[in-house]
Amino acid sequence: MINIGLIGFGYWGPNVAKNIHANKELNLYSICDYKEDRLEKARSVYIEQTTYESDYKKLLQNKDIQAIAVAVETSGHYNLVKEALFAGKHVYVEKPFTSTVKEAEELQELAQELNLIIHVDHIMIFHPVIRKIKELIQNEELGDILFIDAMRMNLGQIKKDVSAMWDLAVHDLAIIDCLMDGKEPFYINSVGEKYYNPKESLCFLTLRYEGFISHIQSSWISPLKERKLIVAGNKKMVVFDDMKTAEKLMVYDKGVNVVSGDDIEYDDYVVKTRDGDVWIPYIKQEDALYNSINHFRECILENKQSISNPTQAIRLQKILESADEKMNK
Ligand SMILES: NC(=O)c1ccc[n+]([C@@H]2O[C@H](COP(=O)([O-])OP(=O)(O)OC[C@H]3O[C@@H](n4cnc5c(N)ncnc54)[C@H](O)[C@@H]3O)[C@@H](O)[C@H]2O)c1
């Protein structure tokens, strides 16, 4: 049994708490939030099944706690993760890992020196639909990837310490990183606007990778809530609609055929679109957050690196920092 202390019980912390609690091999040892109303909320759910603290240092000083889960605002991650590592705790931290690449590199080095695990909750790579898409790519069912188009939009929740791109596009970048085995873009561009917020609330990120291109839209000012991903290959194309309650993944046997041959004049070819079957693969329902937390547990037990480790987070944050430079020009 691994004892975990959770810091942050705001909007997302309750989901982390629920999934730690649901895992029979983890013990939600303590919940910490410096806002009394949030601690009251936690008490109303877990009553005597855990302990409650308003000072996170109590969790760090507690020798019975082996791991800390950090679910506070992004701007608070760096200090808490650093202190948790110095206190000898393994760390689960929400995305995005830190506010800068420099901070992320420092924490990565520290965790290595202290032989501790940092698991960044890039939750989407633990999503069963993303795992299925990866399987389809690996089995060459989609063919060569032509483009990846992602949309994450909603009305709110407008944040102060991060832009919509750092908050939302980080999920899509993690998906691309996972699907394409850590491939990095060689061209990055972005535009965004700072409506209602010191950071951008609406961002369009454009990426060029060897062999394919990608467009990622992140918005907190949309009338519609969308969570959509299109991965188009030259054989098949898939659409993942995470707003649907079932049948989230559709595989389209659609594409473009280039026809050439003896009956076609020299140097000439014919391009024909292909409109075939649509297939809905069976995907077992699993909670991505449960999977992410369980992977963290396995990494602690087996003393192995998380697949969602600081190295991956740094790859994503480097893209976000380059995109920020373009956006501010
Ligand atoms: N994985 C996902 O899909 C997902 C979804 C939403 C949010 N998140 C991430 O979760 C994190 C938290 O986001 P949120 O929307 O819940 O924020 P939030 O502002 O609603 O909640 C943060 C909570 O942490 C508490 N807190 C902050 N610093 C503290 C400290 N030093 N000690 C004790 N308590 C402290 C605050 O009082 C607050 O209650 C962010 O990193 C965000 O990006 C992840």
Automatic annotation (TrEMBL):
Pfam hit, one: GFO_IDH_MocA_C3
Annotated SUPFAM superfamilies: Glyceraldehyde-3-phosphate dehydrogenase-like, C-terminal domain, NAD(P)-binding Rossmann-fold domains
Domain of life: Bacteria
GO terms of molecular function: nucleotide binding
Location of the Gfo/Idh/MocA-like oxidoreductase N-terminal domain: 2-122
Residue span, GFO/IDH/MocA-like oxidoreductase domain: 130-238
Full protein name: Uncharacterized protein
